Amino acid sequence: MTIHIKGGTVVTAERTERADVLVDGEIIAAIGLDLDIPAAAEEIDAGGCLIMPGGIDPHTHMELPFMGTVASEDFFTGTTAAMCGGTTMIIDFVIPEPQQDVMEAYNDWRGWAEKAAGDYSFHVAITWWDDSVKAAMETLTREHGVNSFKHFMAYKGAIMADDEILVNSFAKARELGAICTVHAENGDLVYHLQQELLAKGMTGPEAHPLSRPPEVEGEAADRAIRIAQVLDVPIYIVHTSSKDALKAITRARLEGQRVFGEALAGHLLIDDSVYRNPDWDFAAAHVMSPPFRPKEHQEALWRGLQSGMLQTTASDHCCFCAPQKRMGHNDFTRIPNGTGGVEDRMSLMWHHGVGKGRLTANEFVAVTSTNAAKIFNIYPKKGAVAVGSDADLVIWDPERERTISKDTHHQNVDFNIFEGMTVKGVNRVTLSRGRVVYDDGDVRSEKGTGQYVPRPTFPPYYAALQKVRQRAAPQAVERA
Ligand code: URQ
Ligand code: ZN
Ligand code: ZN
């Protein structure tokens, strides 16, 4: 199938130009004016609209088994909702149970994801350590296109990685040419504070942010970054939510360390007052970690994106419906952690970023798509409008408005943390590898048409670049 996208303005992370785009099969075949268009080409009128790379959401959890339940959004409904909002690829997480065979977990997730309608890839979490885990890291990087390993520094007693696991895994990732990612919260401190709060009779969702103050995140971010510095491995901090974590990232970047930071649309826009709402279900629906923060942190995160200290935005889409959240009715530590947003991230970032003068349109493309493609080594297959790139495209109407609501969203969850927000800047048409999957309200996604995207490890020269701290070659002291 050949598609001629006509009359629009191409916007990438690097440039803005009036140009048509010719899509041939799954690939972008030509970009420019006066293109040679085959007679049989289908035409899409993009007049008044922007043609941009489809969004890449580098942090989602479809059908995740977590905290005694399973996230309500599956790979089909989740990738469909994503594509309705202009996101054409997700990077989800394989999260083995401690002691579970890592390859078995990886195969489970690959099986669940076969129903995906949009493209996907996987970070793999290191939740325990022995020689089999080490061997699995090798197999995953060499044979399965995994180049990023995730470490949860929180969730003590479940999937938490302690320092010993971090050190072993980071060292192995360095050897393999992979990048380490971390959920930065000190799990021991969180556990301690949770027990203190429960002992004081604080059982409701208002206790959730009190058990996870910004310092808990800052300490963990700094520790993980320091471990990565000593072991000379690149590191990516997921869902940076606080000034404290941003400060740790900024310090390290200014010292030349390869550190990347991700911000969530939720952390940029929602503050911690939601946890004090008198409606228990409303407050619990916002329970996610790290929690939403006092307002001053939001502006700091925007400044992080503007200054390039934070490079990506994500949703951390991890949905639980009200009956699932009520599992923690008498104990806030049992409320399944997670909120949605895979469908809304692009419009929210446009409205509050470009619309409010915080980001240029090119910077919007960078933080919603291109930077993730570069950091996770799939650029320019993804994250670009370029000849030869996958035709993952959005035709974006910067003038159109929509009001976000659980009643109209395509996400499989009974709540929307952005409920009632009106955004200007809306996706009109989505192409996934050259197929129109969303057209002005007409959802045309198909189960199983999404493809797994392998991500090669980083080449040897990249590892050489890591040398931020020149350590003298170790020398033994000769003694008589
Ligand atoms: O911590 C995460 O990223 C997962 C497991 C989802 N839940 C959350 O609260 N962020
Ligand atoms: Zn997390
Ligand atoms: Zn997450």
Low-pLDDT parts are none
Q: What gap, in angstroms, lies between the N and C termini?
A: 79 Å
Average pLDDT, rounded to a whole number, is 97
Give helix % range: 25-40%
Arrangement of strands in the largest sheet: 8-11-12-13-14-15-16-17
Shape: globular
Strand percent estimate: 15-25%
**Main beta sheet:** 8 strands, parallel
Q: Rg, please?
A: 22 Å
Structural class: alpha/beta
Tally of strands? 21
If helices are DSSP runs of H or I spanning 4 or more residues, what is the number of helices?
Answer: 15
Q: Which hetero ligands occur in this complex?
A: (2S)-3-(carbamoylamino)-2-methylpropanoic acid, zinc ion
Question: Could you explain the architecture of this structure?
Answer:
- The protein is of the alpha/beta class and about 475 residues long.
- About 30% of the residues lie in helices and about 20% in strands.
- The strands form four sheets. Strands 8-11-12-13-14-15-16-17 form an eight-stranded parallel β-sheet. Strands 3-2-7-18-19-20-21 form a seven-stranded mixed β-sheet.
- A hairpin with a 2-residue loop joins strand 20 and strand 21 (about 440-445).
- Helix 4 (about 165-175) packs across helix 7 and helix 7 runs parallel beside helix 8.
- The radius of gyration is 22 Å and the shape is globular.
- The termini are far apart.
- One zinc ion (ZN) binds near residues 238 and 289.
- One zinc ion binds next to loops.
